[in-house]
Specification:
8 helices; D-Maltodextrin-Binding Protein, domain 2; about 290 residues; two-stranded antiparallel sheet; TRAP_TAXI; 12 strands; ten-stranded mixed beta sheet; elongated; 2 domains; TRAP transporter substrate-binding protein; alpha/beta
Length: about 290
C-alpha cells in the first residue's frame, strides 16, 4: 500500500547550482568579457554577474566566500599572498588566464611659464618621476598597483583612495589630486571619451619583472601618440572547489571558453582584448 501511495508523489529533483561572479563596473572590461563568454557558452546560464568596484573588492569577496569566481589583477593576488600574507590565497585557482591590463596614468596638462629672464619652468606632472611628493587618486585594484609602482620605481607619493573613476576624475579636475592611476584593459570606452587630460608615461624597469610587462597606450582623443606604460595580467579566479556540482559547472565553463577562443576573438561585438588572450599563461595554479 505504501508503494502505491508513493507512486503518485513526484521525486524531488536536485536544484541547479548557481555561482556568483564578481566583475566590476558595468562599462568595464571585466563585465564585457564575462558577457562575451555568455554569448558563446551555454554554461554561463549557471553564472550570475555581481558588479563591484574592481579587483580589490573582487578578491575579498572570493576569499570570504561571497562569490565563487572573480576577475582579478595578478598583482592584487600577489599582494594578498606576499604583503598581507593571507593564508586563504593558497586555495585560489586560475580558471582562465586572461588579458593584460594597462596602467593608465592621467594628469592635467603641465603649465609652462617663462620668467623675465627668458627661463622656462614647468609645473605639473609630465613624467612618472614628477609624482614625487604629489597626490595620486586610485580605486579598487589600482590602489594596490599604485602602492607597488611607488615602491618598485622609488617614487614616493601619497595615494588617495576614492570610490570610483568618476570621483577620481572629479578630484583631478578640482585640483584635489595631481594624478589619477587606473588599471584597465585598453581600449577602455570611458578613456576614449576623456578630454583635457594627458596620459603620463610609466617606465618599465627590471624592478618590475615577474609581475608587470612593458606596454603602450594609444588614445587619439587625448592627442597623444604611443605612450609607454606597464601592464599586469588579469585572471578569472576561483577557489579549489571539490563538490561535484560546482566542479562540473566550472570545468565545463572552462572547457567551453578554451574551445571557443577563436569565436571570442573574431565574432563581431566581442571586446578587442580577446585578441591578445591565449589561455596558455597561467599566473596562478590552474583549476582542474
Amino acid at each position: 500500500m505504501l508503494c502505491l501511495l508513493l507512486a503518485g508523489v513526484p521525486l524531488a529533483q536536485a536544484q541547479p547550482v548557481f555561482l556568483n561572479v564578481a566583475t566590476g563596473s558595468k562599462t568595464g572590461t571585466y563585465s564585457a568579457m564575462f558577457r562575451n563568454i555568455g554569448v558563446v557558452c551555454t554554461q554561463s546560464a549557471y553564472l550570475k554577474e555581481r558588479g563591484t568596484s574592481g579587483s580589490l573588492e573582487n578578491i575579498d569577496l572570493l576569499l570570504s566566500n561571497e562569490v565563487s569566481l572573480a576577475f582579478v589583477q595578478s598583482d592584487v593576488l600577489k599582494a594578498k599572498e606576499q604583503i598581507d600574507q593571507d593564508a586563504r590565497v593558497a586555495n585560489i585557482r586560475a580558471l582562465l588566464p586572461l588579458h593584460n591590463e594597462e596602467v593608465h596614468l592621467f594628469a592635467r596638462p603641465p603649465v609652462v611659464k617663462k620668467n623675465i629672464f627668458g627661463k622656462t619652468t614647468t609645473t605639473g606632472v609630465a613624467t612618472f618621476a614628477d609624482l614625487k611628493g604629489k597626490r595620486v587618486a586610485a580605486w579598487g585594484g589600482s590602489l594596490i598597483t599604485a602602492k607597488v609602482l611607488s615602491a618598485k620605481l622609488a617614487v614616493p607619493y601619497s595615494i588617495v583612495s576614492v570610490k570610483d573613476r568618476d570621483a577620481a576624475l572629479a578630484a583631478l579636475n578640482a585640483g584635489q589630486v595631481d594624478a589619477v592611476l587606473a588599471v584597465v584593459g585598453q581600449p577602455a570606452a570611458w578613456v576614449k571619451e576623456l578630454s583635457g587630460v594627458n596620459l603620463v608615461p610609466v617606465p618599465y624597469t627590471a624592478a618590475l619583472n615577474g609581475v608587470y610587462s612593458s606596454a603602450k597606450l594609444l588614445y587619439p582623443n587625448l592627442g597623444a601618440g604611443s605612450v609607454p606604460t606597464v601592464a599586469v595580467q588579469s585572471v578569472l579566479a576561483t577557489r579549489d572547489f571539490k563538490t561535484p556540482e560546482r566542479k562540473n559547472i566550472l570545468l565545463k565553463y572552462q572547457q567551453c571558453a578554451l574551445s571557443r577562443l577563436v569565436n571570442l576573438q573574431e565574432d563581431e561585438g566581442m571586446h578587442p582584448k580577446w585578441q591578445e588572450v591565449t589561455f596558455k599563461t597561467w599566473p596562478w595554479p590552474q583549476y582542474k
